[in-house]
Write a structure and sequence with these properties.
The chain is mainly beta. It has a single domain, classed as Exo-inulinase, domain 1 (Jelly Rolls, Sandwich). It is built from 1 helix and 15 strands. Strands 1, 3, 4, 6, 11, 12, 13 and 15 form an 8-stranded antiparallel beta sheet that branches. Strands 2-5-14-7-8-9-10 form a 7-stranded antiparallel beta sheet, with no helix packed on it. Strand 11 and strand 12 form a beta hairpin. It is globular and about 45 Å long. The N terminus is likely disordered.
């Protein structure tokens, strides 16, 4: 067997099995019974589900069926929920991904997601106390620096990246896919079905961080979230 065939065999049977299947850390489409159980607001920490003044279960008819979603109603009071499977970044970590559908109701309604080491929400943001680590994305319809991706590690001031482009170009639903790559130290945001990232942030190093909760922002007329999946891909330690 020549060298080319040998390398092909390695790629097919070695590289192809290098990574294990994705493991889901948290998932919700808000269709289950009591879908806001476990969600806690930074205004009334410890109370679940959150007070309806700060967050509520929304609904709408889509193709003749009722679809439910979470609506955050009061900025800057966000809500957080503990991950079903907390996860610590290690040498085997390849990627951590947050996939979520978002919608801002109105020109100034802000959507923001944050994967945090905290177990309860802080006011006004998860990094405000300066004793936590995490990463996230936020934005609304207008082009400015409020539209960004960011990370933080035991600091009150996250490191942000933006070119001011809006990740919420209209009042319709849009999918955000935010991917932290532990191998090449990048944070990337994809919008809808795009294969080209909207933003790429480099030199993002979150080794050793244990992620415990997902945080969602609210806004005056409603920031909507649906079909949330937080997942991780690891190297297959057996290979």
């Amino acid at each position: 067997m020549n060298l080319r065939l040998i390398m092909t065999a390695v790629c097919l049977f070695g590289c192809g099995s290098l990574f294990a299947e994705s493991k889901v850390l948290f998932k919700s489409d808000f269709e289950q019974d009591n879908p806001l159980k476990g969600f806690v607001c930074s205004r009334d920490t410890g109370i679940t589900p959150p007070d309806a003044a700060f967050g509520m279960l929304g609904s709408e008819t889509v193709d003749g069926k009722i679809n439910h979603f979470y609506r955050g109603l009061s900025a800057p009071f966000g809500v957080s929920v503990i991950l079903e499977h907390p996860y610590k970044v290690c040498d085997n970590t390849v990627t951590i991904e947050i996939k979520v559908r978002v919608r801002g109701n109105g020109d100034c309604n802000f959507c923001m997601i944050d994967l945090s080491s905290l177990e309860s929400p802080k006011f006004p943001y998860q990094f405000s106390a300066g004793k936590s680590s995490g990463f996230g994305a936020g934005g609304y319809r207008h082009a400015n620096t409020c539209n960004n991706i960011y990370y933080y590690k035991n600091t009150k001031k996250p490191v942000t990246f933006t070119d001011n482009t809006s990740p919420l170009p209209d009042n319709d639903w849009h999918e955000w896919k935010l991917v932290y790559n532990n191998v090449d130290s990048t944070l990337v945001l994809y919008l809808d079905n795009a294969t080209t990232p909207l933003w790429i942030q480099k030199e993002v190093k979150l080794g050793g961080v244990e992620f415990n909760s997902l945080w969602l922002s609210g806004s005056q007329f409603g920031s909507d979230y649906d079909d949330i999946i937080v997942s991780v891909v690891e190297k297959d330690a057996a290979k």
